[in-house]
């Protein structure tokens, strides 16, 4: 009789609990305006980020990596992404033989952004990358907005790279990629070719990353060394067997004009997202004060040189109108009669794609882990496994998301959707560095710096719009000269104090200001589809913040909620030891 009573009351209790939770949630929603005022611009200090927030992962990530591991991670993460995935389509459709100039422009912009990242990573050596830098400078919402966008870029670019892996793997065996995929009638075109090899690769790397960061880094180091040698083979073969006539035939070196070169730079820019992955390893690197700048800046320089030489070798071997959009390098060797090299290139490119995927998936999990620490997403995504020292839940979750997109979505659709988020985040980081150096560190009034950033961005938009629409010839010199005047006047009128802890950006504000200018200019060249995707995603993540994020962080920070807090004394002691190494 008692058993029957207890069984009948159990559903009633659960229903009551659900009703109470729903009532509390409705009450929280009614307080949204008040909570937004409290949380949107809320910032943390670097010390709080390094100690209090990091404890929410339960266990610390293990510091096992050295500077050369970081260089290899950065190079491995970037090599294989752009040069094998985007060079063919951009050379054929957008830039022509001047695709190598597009890589130079994108490389300069990435180098300037990497300088901004390097200073932030030394001052705030946590795994959150741009999310942490922006949250500590501009507040919670800007950090969340940037972190959510860079996560989307990671997932989409990794899906694109995984599908490209199938293309090159089939080329290594001398087969067409269609036989490796399954066509499903009834699905929308562009989403009807199921790519199971891409899914298998992503799931395999996800399991590898769940096991250990150090072992994953060692695997990447071996593959990256081999990959650089392989790049050398392609470059030498291309220069020896190509001809400079292919650079000017059939319609000159820039058949699509200056606009095509800039459009190409914007499309290949996502190839440089790998150095951002290197910055997310800040909690796992030994001696971060010196290792982080070397790893981040060094990997960008090495990769930029290799990208430009690879693109140039491709255009030397084959006229741009004969470059194929898929497996461009393999088909280029077929054109010059090196059938055997075509298969070798397919195998080497597949290996390079594996290395770049490994690093990118490493970085995306750490982004999500730190966003989880801030309570902007469910806190279980922030947990670090105590034995492996890896963000297990975040790695598994994003691995499944990436695999789902790679299974259905065609490569061309994915490529058109990416780059805008990367450019936006790098633009925000450059703005944040200027604001941090001139307002937070130098103690200047914020109005001067904010006005400078607004005028600089406006001038960059005016310059790029004048170049894009070509309606007024006076627009280019007007906005170009005004940009130089704005930067020069700000440099003269507003004093800057340079901090003395670790590496810092020289010649401020010029490098950061030029980074802002280039990122804005490249963003304006992207297709309308990219901005539509960005608008939809922005609306979604803003809605998520309003319905979940702001209430979660308000309860954790303002009301002192500690349901998910894990702060064992051993972890505290370990964190203090790590921070002594950092400082």
TrEMBL record:
Record family assignment = Belongs to the amino acid-polyamine-organocation (APC) superfamily. Cationic amino acid transporter (CAT) (TC 2.A.3.3) family.
Q: Which Pfam families match?
A: AA_permease_2
Q: Keywords of this protein's UniProt record, alphabetized?
A: Membrane, Transmembrane, Transmembrane helix
GO cellular component labels? plasma membrane
Compartment(s)? Membrane
Its membrane topology: Multi-pass membrane protein
What stretches pass through the bilayer?
67-88, 100-120, 141-161, 193-211, 218-239, 296-320, 340-362, 390-408, 415-435, 447-467, 474-494, 500-522, 534-554
Q: What is this protein called?
A: Cationic amino acid transporter C-terminal domain-containing protein
Q: Which GO terms describe its molecular function?
A: amino acid transmembrane transporter activity
What the entry lists under InterPro entries is as follows: AA/rel_permease1
Q: What is the lineage of its organism?
A: Eukaryota, Viridiplantae, Streptophyta, Embryophyta, Tracheophyta
């Amino acid at each position: 009789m008692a058993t029957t009573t207890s069984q009948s009351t159990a559903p009633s209790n659960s229903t009551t609990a659900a009703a109470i939770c729903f009532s509390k949630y409705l009450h929280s929603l009614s307080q949204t305006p008040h909570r937004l005022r409290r949380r949107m611009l809320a910032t943390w200090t670097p010390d709080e980020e390094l100690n209090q927030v990091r404890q929410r992962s339960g266990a610390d990530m293990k510091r096992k990596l050295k500077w050369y591991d970081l260089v290899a991670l950065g190079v491995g993460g970037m090599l294989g992404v752009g040069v094998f995935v985007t060079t063919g389509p951009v050379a054929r459709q957008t830039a022509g033989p001047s695709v190598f100039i597009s890589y130079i422009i994108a490389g300069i912009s990435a180098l300037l952004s990497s300088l901004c990242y390097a200073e932030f990573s030394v001052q705030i050596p946590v795994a959150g990358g741009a999310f942490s830098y922006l949250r500590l400078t501009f507040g919670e919402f800007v950090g969340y907005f940037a972190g959510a966008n860079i996560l989307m870029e990671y997932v989409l670019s990794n899906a694109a790279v995984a599908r490209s892996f199938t293309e090159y793997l089939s080329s290594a065996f001398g087969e067409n990629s269609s036989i490796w995929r399954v066509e499903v009638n009834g699905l929308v075109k562009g989403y009807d070719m199921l790519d199971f090899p891409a899914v298998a690769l992503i799931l395999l790397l996800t399991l590898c990353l769940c096991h250990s960061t150090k072992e994953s880094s060692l695997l990447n180091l071996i593959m990256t060394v081999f990959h650089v040698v392989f790049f050398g083979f392609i470059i030498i073969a291309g220069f020896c067997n190509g001809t400079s006539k292919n650079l000017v035939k059939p319609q000159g070196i820039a058949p699509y004009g200056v606009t095509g070169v800039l459009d190409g730079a914007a499309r290949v820019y996502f190839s440089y997202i790998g150095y951002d992955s290197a910055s997310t390893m800040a909690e796992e690197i030994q001696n971060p004060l010196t290792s982080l700048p070397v790893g981040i800046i060094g990997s960008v320089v090495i990769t930029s040189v290799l990208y430009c030489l690879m693109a140039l070798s491709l255009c030397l071997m084959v006229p741009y109108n004969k470059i194929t959009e898929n497996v461009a390098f393999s088909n280029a060797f077929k054109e010059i009669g090196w059938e055997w090299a075509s298969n070798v290139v397919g195998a080497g490119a597949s290996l390079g794609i594996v290395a770049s995927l490994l690093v990118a998936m490493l970085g995306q999990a750490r982004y999500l882990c730190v966003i989880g620490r801030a309570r902007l997403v469910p806190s279980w995504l922030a947990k670090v496994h105590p034995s492996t020292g890896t963000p297990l839940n975040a790695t598994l979750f994003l691995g499944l998301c990436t695999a789902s997109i790679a299974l259905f979505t065609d490569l061309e659709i994915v490529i058109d959707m990416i780059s805008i988020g990367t450019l936006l985040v790098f633009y925000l980081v450059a703005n944040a560095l200027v604001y941090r150096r001139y307002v937070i560190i130098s103690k200047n009034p914020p109005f001067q710096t904010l006005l400078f950033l607004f005028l600089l961005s406006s001038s960059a938009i005016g310059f790029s719009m004048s170049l894009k629409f070509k309606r007024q010839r006076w627009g280019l010199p007007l906005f170009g000269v005004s940009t130089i005047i704005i930067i020069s006047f700000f440099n003269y009128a507003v004093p800057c104090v340079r901090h003395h802890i670790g590496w810092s950006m020289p010649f401020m504000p010029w490098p950061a200001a030029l980074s802002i200018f280039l990122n804005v200019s490249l963003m304006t060249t992207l297709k309308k589809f990219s901005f539509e995707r960005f608008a939809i995603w922005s609306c979604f993540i803003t809605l998520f913040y309003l319905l979940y994020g702001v209430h979660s962080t308000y309860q954790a920070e303002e009301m002192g909620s500690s349901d998910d807090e894990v702060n064992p004394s051993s972890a505290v002691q370990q964190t203090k030891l790590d921070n002594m190494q950092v400082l």
